[in-house]
Amino acid sequence: MSADDQQPDPDGPFEDPAAEGVPAAAPDARTLARRRRKRILRWVATIVVVGVVGYFFAVSLAANWQEVVAQDISFDPLWILTTLLFIAAVPISGLLWGRIVRVLEPEVHVAARESIAVQCASWILKYVPGQVGSVVNKTIWAGKKGISRTLVVISFVYENVFMQLASLVPSGIILLISLGPEIFGQNATLLLLPMLAIVPFALISWKPFFHRILDAPARRLLKRPVPAEYFLSTGQTLRSSGEFVLPRAINGIGFVLLAGTIVPLTPAEWLPFAAAYVLAGAIGVLAVFVPSGLGVREAVIVLILSQYIPVPQAIVISLIARLLATIGDGGVALIYLGLRRTIPKELRP
User: Fold this and answer.
1) Tally of domains in the chain
2) Which residues contact 113 (CB under 8 A, 6 or more apart)?
3) Running DSSP on this structure, what letter comes out for residue 23?
4) Does residue 93 lie in a domain region?
5) In Å, how far are 115, 120, 283, 307, 340 from 336, measured between CA atoms?
């Protein structure tokens, strides 16, 4: 065990008793039953959401199947560039997340390759519903690094809030200008309701509000406050919010390149198509019970693109985008495996 592992963590609820030589108490039968019920409910919710979204997507696919199979689809070299762009967005997000950690904990050195490796590992773990795997990976790394786990959880919240704001706000504005408010009114469940998430996300990014909603339960449960230094200032929040537009824009560009290989696009359609993919990705993340937004993202893409092109072509584009994104996840895993070897064994995510 490294010296970092032996450092006491200031955050009580994340402390590992065994690290201090105190044997961890075995959970009682009631606790095990509660965990089992939660696990069952989570998987039931996952199956229900995936089933409902899959049903409607399958209905749309079946209704247009003849037209879909009639599409003349062949490999295009631009698909490789699209995949590389999908991959590149992940390490860039890792650099931005690492900068948040360094701002909140300036005394601990977090190298760029380390933040990228942690981010890539968490990205692959997004297939665990609810992003549980992603946040657990980062908190375990924090314990090895000697960083407050509470601070890293807060940085994880910031990262997701900034990513969602960078996805929802620009995409919503672009589609509102391009298609008008009717697109949201006619599709309230898939589009309008997720857009309403902008309000709580904006509030969380505001330091006084975020600090207050975390500090109150911490004082009650942990008998101590959450330090104010664990939160970004207004200037830092605005800067990070703007920075997280970059990986979203990279994803959007990759999707436009892909769509252009299936249907001819005019310059006027570039921004709406990019916005459709970015917005679909954000809504997929909001579907917390669905592994990697499976089915949700495709449904949103088809819904928006069908306002510009025939439904069969929109379905084909959404399916190829999912395929290339999945291949891209393999590339992200390779980046993680390559960087992992450059990090000391006791600090590896």
Assistant:
1) 1
2) 339, 342, 343
3) P
4) yes
5) 10, 6, 26, 39, 6
Cβ contacts of 35 within 8 Å, gap of 6 or more: 27
- Could you give the angle at which helices 149-179 and 132-145 cross, rounded to 10 degrees? 140
Q: How far apart are CA 226 and CA 42, in angstroms?
A: 29
Does residue 11 lie in a domain region? no
Whose structure tokens read 């664990």?
Answer: 230
Amino acid occupying residue 348: R
Q: Does residue 158 lie within any of the structural domains?
A: yes
63-112, pLDDT tens digit by residue? 545 554 555 677 889 999 999 999 999 999 999 999 999 999 888 888 89
The packing angle between helices 267-286 and 245-260, to 10°, is 120
- Cα atoms in the 13 Å half-sphere on the side-chain side of 204: 19
Q: pTM for the full model?
A: 0.76
Q: Which of helix, strand or coil describes residue 223?
A: coil
Give CA–CA dist 68/241, Å, rounded: 39
By C-alpha distance, which of 206, 208, 184 is closest to 196? 184
Q: CB of 73 within 8 A of CB of 316? A: yes
- Domain of residue 225, residue span: 25-347
Tokens 């959401």 sit at which residue? Answer: 49
83 contacts: CB under 8 Å, gap ≥ 6: 254, 324, 327, 328, 331
